[in-house]
């Protein structure tokens, strides 16, 4: 899978600005935030194979791509969003 | 000579079917705070109507008081425009009238505290031939899609006033 389209990245960018409820205490403009969205998408694209390889079998071969994505989302959310 | 001031508060705003700011009531420490939350990514508009009581002459000044949801930096592009109809003398359908050319201002978040209050002024020079006691509709919008609008979160509209000379 390639990186997200420009429109999809814009959609993520706008969603983040709309849904973020934690104060951003330093200076950060919309353009600078967009650069971070792009970087996060690029990182996800570059490391998708690494994540897949890290999964043990049989999960790696049995789970679908959406199921693997959900698994990663839940783990990351539990690690970093708990209490946020 | 005196300055007339007409207040606009979130509770009185009207909206079209799309592209409107969300009305929010935030329970503060000791009192509720009502705002209109204007999106950071697109243009959203709120509308009010009023009678131009004792309008004399000159431009209109819209003084907007606002704050941010989560940011402590960045700029917000605010805009305003009016449409005026004189009763009796005009046969204009009030539902098909269009707005005059808008005016805008770019105001910066002053930093330090997220939800501190900022104030800015828009000078409306496209007056649509406004005269005393006309019925006037006004739109106040945030142009979140504009390149000059850089604040990365909702802008909270607290209140505004329209000011003009009565002479």
Written description of the protein model:
The complex is a heterodimer of chains A (84) and B (167). With 84 residues, chain A is an all-alpha fold. Chain A folds into two domains: 1-46, no CATH class; 55-84, no CATH class. Chain A is 69% helix and 0% strand. Chain A starts with 5 loop residues before the first helix and ends with a helix. In chain B, the strands form two sheets. In chain B, strands 1, 2, 3, 5, 8 and 10 form a six-stranded antiparallel beta sheet that branches. In chain B, strands 4-9-6-7 form a four-stranded antiparallel beta sheet, with no helix packed on it. Chain B has a single domain, classed as Jelly Rolls (Sandwich). With 167 residues, chain B is an all-beta fold.
Structural features:
heterodimer, A: 84 residues, mainly alpha, 2 domains, B: 167 residues, mainly beta, Jelly Rolls, six-stranded antiparallel β-sheet, four-stranded antiparallel β-sheet
* Unreliably modeled segments of chain B: none
In DSSP terms (H or I, runs of 4 or more residues), the helix count of chain B works out at 0
Rg of Cα set of chain B: 16 Å
| Distance N to C terminus of chain B | 6 Å
Structural class of the helices, strands and pairings of chain A?
Answer: mainly alpha
Percent helix range of chain B: under 10%
Oligomer: heterodimer
């Amino acid at each position: 899978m390639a990186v997200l389209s420009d429109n999809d990245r814009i959609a993520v960018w706008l969603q983040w600005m709309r849904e973020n409820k934690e104060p951003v205490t330093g200076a950060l403009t919309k353009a600078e935030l967009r650069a971070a969205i792009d970087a996060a998408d690029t990182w996800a694209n570059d490391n998708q194979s690494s994540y897949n390889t890290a999964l043990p079998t049989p999960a790696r071969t049995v789970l679908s791509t959406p199921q693997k994505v959900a698994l990663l989302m839940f783990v990351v959310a539990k690690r970093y969003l708990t209490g946020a | 000579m005196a300055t007339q001031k007409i207040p606009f508060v979130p509770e009185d705003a009207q909206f079209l079917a799309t592209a409107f700011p969300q009305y929010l009531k935030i329970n503060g420490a000791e009192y509720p705070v009502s705002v209109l939350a204007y999106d950071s990514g697109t243009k959203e508009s709120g509308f009010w109507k009023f009678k131009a009581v004792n309008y004399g002459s000159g431009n209109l000044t819209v003084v907007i008081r606002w704050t941010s949801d989560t940011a402590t930096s960045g700029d917000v592009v605010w805009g305003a425009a009016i449409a005026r109809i004189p009763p009796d003398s005009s046969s204009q359908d009030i539902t098909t009238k269009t707005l005059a050319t808008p005016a805008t201002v770019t105001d910066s978040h002053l930093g330090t505290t997220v939800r501190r209050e900022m104030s800015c002024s828009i000078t409306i020079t496209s007056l649509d031939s406004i005269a005393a006691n006309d019925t006037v509709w006004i739109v106040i919008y945030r142009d979140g899609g504009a390149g000059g609008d850089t604040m990365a979160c909702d802008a909270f509209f607290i209140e505004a006033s329209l000011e003009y000379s009565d002479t």
